[in-house]
Design a protein that fits this description.
The chain contains four helices and two strands, in the order αβαβαα. A two-stranded parallel ribbon has the order 1-2. α1 packs parallel to α2. With about 80 residues, the chain is of the alpha+beta class.
């Protein structure tokens, strides 16, 4: 896990949430890290991840200063399954 996101795991370890919402899911890698951290404390965790997926386009990329490639919802579902 990158240094930038270690604080998320620290918060999860402290709060031990049963539900987590992530805005900006992108490719699902962070969702896996978040879920693994939360599942250290609970047998089951509700996770909701939101992103534009197929609705993302060049206009949104310019407005959000996004340089990451787009990932489809199907790809993220497959990764999380």
């Amino acid at each position: 896990m990158s240094e930038r996101y270690k604080q998320i795991s620290l918060i999860i370890d402290y709060v031990k949430p049963a539900s987590i919402v992530e805005i900006g899911t992108w490719n699902g890698d962070r969702a896996i890290e978040i879920a693994r951290s939360a599942l250290n404390h609970r047998a089951y965790v509700h996770y909701w991840g939101f992103d534009l997926f197929e609705q993302a386009d060049d206009y949104h990329d310019q407005r959000e200063l996004n340089v990451k490639p787009h990932t489809s919802l199907r790809e993220v579902h497959a990764k999380l399954d």
